[in-house]
Amino acid sequence: MDLTGFVGLGRMGRPMASNLCRKGFRLVVHDIDPRAAAEVAALQARAAGNVAEVAAEAGIIVTMLPNSAVVDAVVAGPEGILAHARPGSLIMDMSTVDPLTTDRLAAEAARRGVAYVDAPVGRLASHADRGESLFMVGAEAADFARVRPLLEAMGTTIYHCGPVGAGTRTKLVNNYLAVTSCQLNAEALALSQRLGLDLERTLDVLYGTTAVNGQLKIAWPAKVLRGDVEPGFTIDLAHKDLSLIVEAANAARVPMPVAAAAREAFSAARASGFGGQDFSAMVDALCALAGIEKPRLKAPPDAA
Amino acid sequence: MDLTGFVGLGRMGRPMASNLCRKGFRLVVHDIDPRAAAEVAALQARAAGNVAEVAAEAGIIVTMLPNSAVVDAVVAGPEGILAHARPGSLIMDMSTVDPLTTDRLAAEAARRGVAYVDAPVGRLASHADRGESLFMVGAEAADFARVRPLLEAMGTTIYHCGPVGAGTRTKLVNNYLAVTSCQLNAEALALSQRLGLDLERTLDVLYGTTAVNGQLKIAWPAKVLRGDVEPGFTIDLAHKDLSLIVEAANAARVPMPVAAAAREAFSAARASGFGGQDFSAMVDALCALAGIEKPRLKAPPDAA
Amino acid sequence: MDLTGFVGLGRMGRPMASNLCRKGFRLVVHDIDPRAAAEVAALQARAAGNVAEVAAEAGIIVTMLPNSAVVDAVVAGPEGILAHARPGSLIMDMSTVDPLTTDRLAAEAARRGVAYVDAPVGRLASHADRGESLFMVGAEAADFARVRPLLEAMGTTIYHCGPVGAGTRTKLVNNYLAVTSCQLNAEALALSQRLGLDLERTLDVLYGTTAVNGQLKIAWPAKVLRGDVEPGFTIDLAHKDLSLIVEAANAARVPMPVAAAAREAFSAARASGFGGQDFSAMVDALCALAGIEKPRLKAPPDAA
Amino acid sequence: MDLTGFVGLGRMGRPMASNLCRKGFRLVVHDIDPRAAAEVAALQARAAGNVAEVAAEAGIIVTMLPNSAVVDAVVAGPEGILAHARPGSLIMDMSTVDPLTTDRLAAEAARRGVAYVDAPVGRLASHADRGESLFMVGAEAADFARVRPLLEAMGTTIYHCGPVGAGTRTKLVNNYLAVTSCQLNAEALALSQRLGLDLERTLDVLYGTTAVNGQLKIAWPAKVLRGDVEPGFTIDLAHKDLSLIVEAANAARVPMPVAAAAREAFSAARASGFGGQDFSAMVDALCALAGIEKPRLKAPPDAA
């Protein structure tokens, strides 16, 4: 079997690469932190000395990197993947980047006879650990068929959203709703607390009407409403995603006033020291600002 | 059996009063529009000449009126309910009003030996027609027991949210989430359309993550996404509720920047002529502003 | 000479009434706090026992009260001015209220043969002390002529803005710009501080371009930029005015997204304990939130 | 005398280069549009074939380019200025870019023994035509002395704001206030129009209080309030600057909710077709949205 390349072994990339190894894929990996690469190499992957080596050896190269600028350098830089990739190889970028970067890199790849797929990741790091991620994929049909086995090894839910670029764009729309819902919930529950309403009764009502949202129903009762603000997804990362969204919307001439207001609320939460907490802790940030008691469910989750 | 009074026979009050009649309650009713009262009277209710008559004859008086000022006048005005109510009677206000009005009227009622319950209504006018409303009730336990049979005759879901005022406050929190979700969805789908994403595929993804909300999942596919903007709940009414919410939040010293941004978005939609459409048509208003094709599901709902 | 009535002897009303006394007007005054009335009475005014007495004795009755609800009660309540005013008398309301209240009270006054003038006050309490206030007057020409001598005794700048209601409306527009400029300046200077710019040099530039505004140029160098946050006009009062403005704009179907965002910023400043400081301290509130050094001019004001 | 290089001969660069020629500087110029270069060459400048030639020949190279990405390519690209500049030469970037780009390029220049100055331009294109621009300069003292003669040839007002990067940062702060003032004024005058106030009288009041700002007092009476929306500075460019500002603020962890709301208002104006009009036409965009008559001064400017 052909080697699969993997560049970027951080909090998300490491478990994803590990899952590929465990499911029998042969990997050549790289990370700027050699310890991260060594850790994955312990699972029978080969640790390459640099990106060029990965590109030269692999048929499919996966990238999982922190932002657009890094993806740009790793893919299109002078010592990057495209400069060393074999014709006919395929790059699958799974980072969250701005869609114009995706479009540009895909066009550059096409000029060099390299296929390009964008497949950003949904759900949390803990899902990646368990191989239960969700992927939003932008790819031509044939390329989607090529990457499908890898995606099935790393996650449980795979959406083919359209041609190259559609994965990244879908992720922006998805994360806009998920992240902004947190600020919505923060405002609703801070108000509810201040008005003296009982949290359990109020949630009962909200869960029974169209006021409900996935964050409030699924994510929050296991996190901030129990006092757990350990990050599944930090306020800092949510702010980064909102920034990508607001920039993409402004570039595309779509006025999004609520997105912009939400972004500044995340900026305020970061500025006052909440950046490293889970993004559900937006309600704690607002309650701290306004001197309101934090909303906490009384009973433990399993004691009901 | 004691007579039940009902003041306010508009789009919501009429079907609610009718359902009470049908379930065997004996009503004495009033509306400033005599035709509305006559219509309900055809169902064996007695049409009183004025509010004072209703107050003098009934043990429980229900009010279902357009705003805080009208409720204030009908309950506490010189010819209003409190001026003519029997000691021991009970007022149940089912209008959507600001909570400080509820508190003030409840205190005034208590001074005169009259019980007070706030029980605003959730769901749409079409639910009221079928006796399927949802009620958020603020009441002392004994008063809640008194009004419960009436509520059961008019709806299917009854939440006892806490003492007097808790119903109104819960409704504000609930409607904040439901109404603002519409602006969230409007921005998300306008962006999605502009980015060239396929609507069905995008909704598939959103419905499978915590990005989902009740409006997007339950309400919209049967309304705006099918091109149906006939109002279940108008943008004008949504704007009214958001205004109550923003005012209540500012009075309570809870900063709600997303609520404020959403309210101005509803104000802009009203200003550009969308006030009479269903509140899901916020996405049409945004698409019209930005020259974006409206999002519409391709297949008819039953043809899947 | 006819008696002039004055109701409301708070932080603004007291010096205004005092100036009238000093300039030779004979006053009959009232305040709910008898000590306030006694203090003015020491200047040869007569302290009446209640509003009705003031109304019955005076040809012109001035009101200077904290908000719309109090003005409503004092003017139109059962023991209020209109119930006891002589035909041909004139009410001049100098409070800051919502314009629909002004319109309603003016109409009610007209029905009873009483003239009505709205003349809200610009500038600060310290200007009122020195008889240097600015007035925005809504009045018919003849009524304007009647009140002009009083206004000239209390201030130095008098604008006849149009018919009744035009004073209140002009004040809203004026205060919108003045108050929101403070949030603009707060954001600009917080950013400037964080970016490491020199305050004096930056102000030099801003004062030389169209970026300048009256708050930044005139008000701030003598207040917050010297570390003086003693209130000339508190953040709480600025928030009250912004609330009137946002409500009036929404009632008038004028979308004002920046006004709404600014109002929530004032709400946040209040919530975090800055409500009693001068409204120029909005920049201190933002710097405190974001951990930025407060902008302060180095040299004392007179050492230049 | 040494040759001066000039790269970027658009709407701003052309008159600036022309003024340098007229004042006796010997220029070597380049633009991607050869006609623009030819036009300046007619003034005795030499039109170079590419950027490299300009860099190789000139002691000081001025850049006046549309955005950060273009400046980055022209300065640091493989065929850019730094690759061909002589040691001891100086780059003065007069474009409006994000400050992190300035910092990065200045550091890169320093590594190659090239001095770097940022000197973005204030005021309008018509000022540049007349050599009346304003410059905000970030430079070491010695470098400032080197560029000063050029700046004096192109403008009338020169601010030395601090070390490299301080010019760009000051321009962001300055333009934040100027551009956002336009949205403030738009909201204030739209509200004023809707409330039926007389424009002249209202401006009289505003000009006499701290509500005034430079746009309203200086810029608007000659532009939009006379019906002149020919761009001195377009809504599109104002939107670009606001975008730089909002991004810089978010990168610097300074919450700026009013900036964010204003940016979306400019985005909405662009989306509805006003992007090419003068930025004072924000009030026309808002009035068009809300069905309000545009504010126009009655008398011609010289007929007073």
Provide a descriptive summary of the structure in words:
The structure is a homotetramer of 304-residue chains. Chain A has two domains: 4-164, Rossmann fold (3-Layer(aba) Sandwich), CATH 3.40.50; 169-290, N-(1-d-carboxylethyl)-l-norvaline Dehydrogenase, domain 2. In chain A, the strands form two sheets. A six-stranded parallel β-sheet of chain A has the order 3-2-1-4-5-6, with helices on both faces. In chain A, β5, α6 (99-111) and β6 form a beta-alpha-beta unit. The first copy, chain A, is α/β, with parallel strands linked by helices and 304 residues long. Chain A contains 14 helices and nine strands. The relative contact order of chain A is 0.09. The first copy, chain A, is 52% helix and 12% strand. Chains in contact: A-B, A-C, A-D, B-C, B-D, C-D. At the A-B interface, β9, α9, α10, α11 and α12 of A face β9, α9, α10, α11 and α12 of B.
Chain-wise SSE layout:
4 copies of one chain form a homotetramer.
Chain A: E1 4-7, H1 13-22, E2 27-30, H2 34-41, E3 46-47, H3 51-57, E4 60-63, H4 68-76, H5 81-84, E5 90-93, H6 99-111, E6 115-118, E7 121-122, H7 125-129, E8 133-138, H8 141-154, E9 155-162, H9 166-194, H10 199-207, H11 214-219, H12 235-251, H13 257-274, H14 282-290
Parallel strand pairs in A: 1-2, 1-4, 2-3, 4-5, 5-6, 8-9
Antiparallel strand pairs in A: 7-8
Helix pairs in contact in A: 9-12, 9-13, 9-14, 12-13
Task: Put the structure in a nutshell.
The structure is a homotetramer of 304-residue chains. Chain A has 304 residues and is an alpha/beta fold.
